[in-house]
Design brief:
Blueprint: E1 12-15, E2 21-25, E3 31-36, E4 41-45, E5 49-52, E6 57-62, H1 65-75, E7 80-85, E8 91-96, E9 101-108, E10 113-117, E11 121-125, E12 129-134, H2 138-144, E13 149-154, E14 157-164, E15 167-172, E16 177-180, E17 185-189, E18 193-198, H3 202-207, E19 213-218, E20 221-226, H4 230-238
Antiparallel strand pairs: 1-2, 2-3, 3-8, 4-7, 4-11, 5-8, 6-7, 9-14, 10-13, 10-17, 11-14, 12-13, 15-20, 16-19, 17-20, 18-19
């Protein structure tokens, strides 16, 4: 049984080192279509899959045993993940972004690690390890909101990330620092030092409108920022929501 032809011309097509083919389609809100041959498996968080051919089977499982499931539940991520396996013949499984944005392919070497926002992970090959990454300053992280709990992907294998809005990549030199509103932090290499710090100055805290904390990213290494954040979009949409009578 063959895989159906793609409905549109892909923006980007490629193939992992293990032979998994992928196609990224669309511009404003992108879709990832992954072609699987028998024996090839990709996994994602629960609820991430958009559509798949009849030859693809699903297997829902806990992530990393009870300890891993607990850590993911605390982080706000799904405690379970789903394997997609082309057991009945070649097939295709597709994932779409939750927000308008970009999908980035990441080919990870053995032992190579990428840290990403908990909502940035889209899917990965079965050989990739998914875990939770905690900042060193627990107290600051709890108040820092979006930047506190992140996910960690370790190769080998192909992984895909979804970034909200446009994806902006910087390559920080050793000792070079970027201070970022936590919601804009999408991903960074493991060589980058990540921390949460309080904004300095009473006027900045109470009048600046940027919240209490900033994420600090210190090189060397690459960082990826997304131009849109879920919290800012929610605040903007809230301005147009109906208000209770007398409110």
């Amino acid at each position: 049984m063959s895989i159906p032809d793609l409905p549109t011309i892909p923006e980007l097509s490629g193939q992992s080192k293990t032979g998994i083919k992928y196609h990224i389609m669309g511009t404003v809100q992108q879709t990832l279509a992954v072609e699987l041959q028998p024996g090839q498996i990709v996994f994602s968080d629960t609820g991430a899959m958009s559509w798949m051919t009849a030859t693809i089977s699903m297997n829902t499982r806990g992530s990393g045993g009870l300890g891993g499931m607990f850590k993911r539940a605390v982080s706000g991520a799904s405690a379970f993940i789903i394997d997609f396996n082309a057991g009945a013949g070649p097939g295709q499984v597709a994932f779409t972004t939750d927000f308008p944005g970009k999908i980035l392919p990441l080919e990870l070497d053995a032992g190579q690690t990428i840290i990403m926002h908990k909502h940035a992970f889209l899917c990965a090959e079965k050989s990739v390890t998914l875990d939770i990454f905690f900042t060193r300053k627990l107290g600051a992280g709890l108040f820092g909101g979006e930047g506190f709990i992140l996910q960690k992907l370790t190769g080998p294998g192909m992984a895909f990330a979804e970034l909200d809005g446009d994806a902006v990549e910087y390559h920080l030199q050793p000792g070079q620092i970027m201070r970022v509103e936590p919601g804009h932090v999408a991903m960074f290499e493991a060589s980058v030092t990540f921390d949460i710090e309080m904004i300095k100055g009473m006027a900045n805290i109470f009048l600046g409108g940027e919240g209490l904390f900033l994420a600090t990213l210190k090189g060397p290494g690459r960082i990826w920022l997304h131009s849109m954040t879920e919290s800012k979009m929610a605040q903007r949409l809230a301005e147009y929501m109906p208000r209770p009578a007398g409110g």
